[in-house]
Amino acid sequence: MTAISQKKKLSDTKLSVLDLVPILESRTISESFENSLDLARKAEELGYTRYWLAEHHNMQGIASSATSVLIGYIAGGTSTIRVGSGGIMLPNHAPLLVAEQFGTLETLYPGRIDLGLGRAPGTDQLTARALRRDLMESVEDFPKHVQDLRTYLGPIQPNARVRAVPGEGTNVPIWILGSSTFGAHLAGLMGLPYAFASHFAPAALQAALKVYRDSFTPSDTLKEPYAMACVNVVAADTDTEANRLVTTLYQSFLNVINGTASPQKPPVDSMEGLWSASEHYAVQQMLRYTFVGSPKTVQEELQAFIDDTQVDEIMVAAHIYDHKARLKSYELLAEIGQKV
Question: Nearest 5 degrees, angle CA 323-CA 329-CA 332?
Fold first, then answer.
């Protein structure tokens, strides 16, 4: 068991970006890609640590399905920020192919690529069956596949019958992603960094962090536990403006609850009439770790979150329809993070 030695401050906590590459209503997918690159460049300028893209499939509002391709696009358009997956959904891919793809990325952009791995398919079951290369395999094979990837990307083994070329010897950092204690335990046992998806699945956050820290075993790549939590942040000059901008996020999650799909919608003045009381409650439960408001409001709430969790890094998703407002939100957050 590893004890947490001291309290952390927001100003000492690394900040990163999670991008789902949202498809906006009345806009093109090409614009989504352009917006993501623009945001990545802004994040790099503002000092964010990493920029991750998430694998999703068959979702009308998300354009990040070809995740490794987009990682190359973002890394090629930036120069210093780390770029990676948050994550690659491993049940959809052969570990060797992932190793070759990320070995190629690491060779092209040395020292800047992260490989975050998830064990869910990142889609509905019908689409998952369309993606699977082997229907006999399941999420239960995840630990073995993670270990396969560590081998493929690890030290060169000249006598190995199967080798990742490019890939071997690149030592691309591997993260375990999760929304339950399963991934936390695996990350701890393997001595890998752990990222929790509290931006949409907050219930098990505290339990997962405890399991991860209690089970952590030092590895060749990580001597102490390193935990990151993903949250939603919508920051604006005023609480009123931020509370309007966040309605885009509410509408997106209302669609998730109702099983409907659509591009990301513009904000509305009020959600009244758009959701029922039970739907409102369900959305709020999923979005428990959503911090909305002026810089002062967001700073206070994020510091309270760090006090509560003692995470080492915060990854931020900002579901904001207007691109300029989205850039502004990350800019305000960076300014908050730099304050002592």
Answer: 140
| Paired tokens of 128 | 């998952």
Low-confidence spans in the chain with pLDDT less than 70: 1-6, 121-123, 128, 132-139, 340
Cis peptide before 87 (omega within 30 of 0): yes
The model's pLDDT over 61-120, given as tens digits with 9 standing for 90+, comes to 999 999 999 999 999 999 999 999 999 999 889 999 999 999 999 999 999 999 999 987
C-alpha–C-alpha distance, residues 214 and 221, integer Å: 18
What element of type H or E holds 84?
strand 82-89
Count of other CB atoms within 10 angstroms of residue 125: 8
pTM of the model: 0.94
Max intra-chain CA distance, the chain:
65
CB–CB of 205/198 below 8 Å?
Answer: yes
**Close Cβ partners of 301 (under 8 Å, ≥ 6 residues apart):** 291, 293
Residues 194 and 192: their CA atoms lie apart, in Å, by 6
State what percent of residues in the chain have pLDDT above 70: 94
Under DSSP, the state recorded for 265 is P
Q: Which two tokens stand for residue 186?
A: 């695996």
